[in-house]
Amino acid sequence: MQLQPGRSMKKKHQSGFTLIELMIASSLLMLVMYAGYFAYSLYSNSWKKQSYAFWQATDKGVNLTSLTRVIEATHPYIVDNINDNSSLYFIATPHHIRFVSKSPIFADEAAVVELQLVGSSLVYRESTLLKAPLFNQHEQREWQHSIVLLNYLTAARFEFFGWDNLEQLQHYELQRDNLLHDEAPIEPQWYNQHQMEERQLLPLSISLTYSVKGGQELSIPFQLPQQTQHALYRYIGIQV
Known about the structure:
Number of domains: 1
Structural class: alpha+beta
Strand content: 25-35%
Oligomer: single chain
Number of strands: 11
Helix content: 25-40%
Distance between the termini: 135 Å
Order of helices and strands: HEEEEEEEEHEHEEH
Shape: elongated
């Protein structure tokens, strides 16, 4: 073939990537994907931890609200103690409380409630009074419900605030009504064990104390119904 004058022959080059270029591009893509996966893993782990902490705090708040409702609805239920005297039903040690509540967690009616500190957990037990009324202090109960209400309570204990006994409360009421003069005023005190046969009354308040990080102690107060002694007064015939 004869070339026309003024025209030059052009070489045709095939377009594409070399093997080295493909390897470099693949390496960069792998680095980008790894960086993205690593960032996603960090975000995912952080989200899981935050989500777990949130739901844990939410559950604790709900359970603490339930516990407060149960304790604040403590009922002045009268039974015979071991000395055959009438008493308001409430038995307690630093790690165990048993009483009657009008607002238990499970039952729709009044029930015997037990709170027990087991290790670092607070265990809640409930026994309805509908089919099995309570008549004396050390009567055994069959628990229909048992759940762990709170966890992570390090070195936890219960404490109680109230009167030493029925006679002390009556003495205070006489002082309050100005029927006794020239005597040191009587006040309720904190104590760590409630023996029903000695006190006969309900405490005025309860404190749940436990340790947090750093050794600092945190106390959660619970207020019991006031003037519950009048139920006992009426039952045993004391004039107020």
